[in-house]
């Protein structure tokens, strides 16, 4: 087989330790995995004596040859030479790439493990055939890994090598629950970065009760986009003008009114009652279910999930992750509100965990929360950028490009709330200048906006940008209308009036009375 023709889609790395292999025969497991569709095999054994290594490698090579799949040896160039297999895989502490190439010749396949920009650069310049990028997620299989880079770190490396003719797989903690997501999420949209060629796994196959079935399942997952990818915001949807989006608002509001979608809130203790009433007013069916085990069933009901981190606890975080997985698997939208994200170390870590554990369709927060989701965002914040200061166009642009980059990286919609609200899916940054000061004087109004947005994306999932814009306009204009009422004397009387006006505007929209939309101040950053 020519090395250019190697398929890296499902790359099996073996492990002979009892914790993973158990009492199974390594050759039987590899044979089963090949029947299941594994496309490349690396024999990795850090403990056996050289004689045993060579003997096992020979048996494995006979098997991989029957399946026309390359066999690579981890680290041991001598073993690869002794059995005449297709190549080797070298880590950063192993023999260097140019020596390995000299020993093995130009036709051998040589892969290199990389975890940062510098290692990547050296491996590409040195003529590696493929990169094993990791460690993506922490894994008990290899505990002494250098760094956990997450999907963000993986994407960074793929952006760096956009133009290199090199193949790539990722490694570390990859299994059936995340393979498809990692393949899709690590690729920067718009052809800016490279897409992974595949995933490398150890335990997901070597420790599986049925390695053939596990391989078959993984290969299918690697080759098919995840459920949530189907409804990502398209380039055409992003190219619309504010007027185009405004024209869709009635349709979105009516869709919620007609469908009464489920708004599943995992939200904080302070706002549960308020959020449930807001959901009802905008036309959704709220459920305030904080127990993650329920999420699988709830995700099947055609609704959307709100993860609101307002009163995060370790148990709460576990529940969020279960629900996130369930909604991602069902292909139903998730709105994440990283409340107080920058405020404490616990919240910073929880935000990172949530963002790294699944796909978030809409990331919504205030300026400091959103900036703390961006690498380097804290510095933007510390430099005192203030989008609400009048006439501060430079700051608006800075914030606009920061959230645009965040949306590109996450392939989602980002909403940054404030005096002006900003919305982007990675291209145009739309702005909403409606609302009322009372919203800032009542607890939970930010959280309830998340609930409102969840109702809109649940009812209108194929156009999440329009859905989010509709949610923001309905919410902030209802606040204006409520605040102007004669019976509203301050923040206390504002709350029931606001709930009424959310209901009234929705009902008016359903009847075709769209007068309220004349107040809309929807724009786009130049
Ligand atoms: N190399 P599992 S992580 C062999 O980061 C190996 O370089 C890694 O095992 C790296 O698929 C790893 O069971 C083990 O998580 C991956």
Automatic annotation (TrEMBL):
Reactions catalysed, as given in the entry: 5-(2-hydroxyethyl)-4-methylthiazole + ATP = 4-methyl-5-(2-phosphooxyethyl)-thiazole + ADP + H(+); 4-methyl-5-(2-phosphooxyethyl)-thiazole + 4-amino-2-methyl-5-(diphosphooxymethyl)pyrimidine + H(+) = thiamine phosphate + diphosphate; 2-[(2R,5Z)-2-carboxy-4-methylthiazol-5(2H)-ylidene]ethyl phosphate + 4-amino-2-methyl-5-(diphosphooxymethyl)pyrimidine + 2 H(+) = thiamine phosphate + CO2 + diphosphate; 2-(2-carboxy-4-methylthiazol-5-yl)ethyl phosphate + 4-amino-2-methyl-5-(diphosphooxymethyl)pyrimidine + 2 H(+) = thiamine phosphate + CO2 + diphosphate
Pathway per its UniProt entry is: Cofactor biosynthesis; thiamine diphosphate biosynthesis; thiamine phosphate from 4-amino-2-methyl-5-diphosphomethylpyrimidine and 4-methyl-5-(2-phosphoethyl)-thiazole: step 1/1; Cofactor biosynthesis; thiamine diphosphate biosynthesis; 4-methyl-5-(2-phosphoethyl)-thiazole from 5-(2-hydroxyethyl)-4-methylthiazole: step 1/1
Which cofactors, by name?
Mg(2+)
The Swiss-Prot or TrEMBL record annotates one GO molecular function as:
hydroxyethylthiazole kinase activity
Q: Which GO terms describe its biological process?
A: thiamine biosynthetic process
Domain Thiamine phosphate synthase/TenI: where?
Answer: 10-205
InterPro entries per UniProt: Aldolase_TIM (IPR013785), Hyethyz_kinase (IPR000417), Ribokinase-like (IPR029056), ThiamineP_synth_sf (IPR036206), ThiamineP_synth_TenI (IPR022998), TMP_synthase (IPR034291)
Q: Keywords, A to Z?
A: ATP-binding, Kinase, Magnesium, Metal-binding, Nucleotide-binding, Thiamine biosynthesis, Transferase
> What Pfam families does the record point to?
HK, TMP-TENI
Q: Which GO terms describe its cellular component?
A: cytoplasm
User: CDD domains, alphabetically?
Assistant: THZ_kinase (cd01170), TMP_TenI (cd00564)
Family of the protein in this entry = In the C-terminal section; belongs to the Thz kinase family. In the N-terminal section; belongs to the thiamine-phosphate synthase family.
User: HAMAP family of this UniProt entry?
Assistant: Thz_kinase, TMP_synthase
Q: What does this protein do?
A: Condenses 4-methyl-5-(beta-hydroxyethyl)thiazole monophosphate (THZ-P) and 2-methyl-4-amino-5-hydroxymethyl pyrimidine pyrophosphate (HMP-PP) to form thiamine monophosphate (TMP).
The protein in question is named: Uu.00g060660.m01.CDS01
């Amino acid at each position: 087989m020519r090395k250019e023709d190697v398929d890296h889609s499902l790359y099996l790395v073996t492990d002979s330790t009892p914790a993973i292999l158990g009492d199974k025969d390594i050759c039987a497991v590899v044979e089963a995995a090949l029947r299941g569709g594994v496309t490349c095999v690396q024999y990795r054994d850090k403990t056996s004596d050289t004689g045993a290594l060579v003997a096992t490698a020979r048996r494995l090579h006979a098997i991989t040859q029957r399946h026309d799949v390359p066999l690579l040896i981890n680290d041991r160039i001598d073993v690869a030479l002794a059995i005449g297999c297709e190549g080797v895989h070298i880590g950063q502490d192993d023999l260097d790439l140019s020596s390995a190439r000299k020993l093995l010749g130009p036709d051998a396949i040589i892969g290199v493990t990389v975890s940062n920009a510098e290692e990547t650069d050296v491996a590409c310049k040195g003529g590696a055939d493929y990169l094993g990028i990791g460690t993506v997620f922490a894994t008990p299989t290899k505990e002494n890994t250098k760094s956990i880079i997450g999907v963000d770190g993986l994407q960074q490396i793929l952006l760096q090598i956009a133009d290199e003719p090199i193949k790539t797989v990722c490694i570390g903690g990859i299994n059936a629950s995340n393979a498809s997501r990692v393949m899709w999420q690590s690729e920067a949209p718009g052809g800016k970065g490279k897409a992974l060629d595949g995933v490398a796994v150890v335990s997901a196959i070597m420790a599986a009760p049925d390695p053939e079935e596990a391989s078959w399942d993984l290969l299918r997952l690697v080759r098919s986009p995840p459920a949530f990818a189907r409804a990502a915001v398209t380039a055409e949807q992003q190219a619309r003008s504010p007027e185009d989006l405004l024209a869709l608002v009635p349709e979105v509001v009516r869709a919620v009114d007609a469908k009464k979608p489920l708004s599943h809130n995992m939200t904080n203790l302070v706002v549960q009652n308020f959020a449930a009433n807001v959901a009802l007013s905008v036309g959704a069916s709220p459920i305030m279910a904080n127990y993650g085990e329920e999420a699988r069933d709830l995700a099947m009901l055609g609704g959307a999930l709100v993860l609101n981190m307002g009163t995060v606890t370790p148990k709460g975080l576990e529940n969020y992750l279960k629900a996130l997985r369930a909604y991602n698997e069902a292909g139903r939208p998730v709105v994440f509100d990283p409340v107080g994200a920058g405020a404490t170390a616990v919240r910073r870590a929880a935000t990172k965990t949530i963002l790294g554990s699944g796909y978030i369709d809409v990331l919504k927060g205030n300026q400091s929360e959103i900036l703390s989701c961006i690498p380097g965002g804290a510095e933007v914040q510390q430099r005192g950028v203030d989008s609400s200061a009048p006439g501060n166009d430079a700051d608006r642009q800075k914030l606009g490009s920061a959230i645009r980059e965040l949306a590109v990286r996450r392939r989602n919609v980002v909403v940054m709330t404030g005096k002006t609200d900003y919305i982007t899916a990675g291209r145009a940054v739309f702005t909403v200048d409606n609302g009322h000061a009372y919203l800032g004087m009542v607890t939970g109004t930010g959280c309830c906006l998340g609930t409102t947005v969840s109702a809109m994306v649940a009812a209108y999932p194929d156009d999440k940008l329009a859905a989010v814009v509709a949610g923001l306009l309905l919410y902030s204009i209802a606040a204006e209308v409520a605040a102007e009422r004669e019976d509203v004397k301050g923040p206390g009387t504002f709350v029931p009036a606001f709930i009424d006006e959310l209901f009234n505007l929705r009902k008016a929209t359903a009847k075709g009375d769209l007068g309220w939309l004349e107040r809309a101040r929807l724009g786009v950053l130049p």
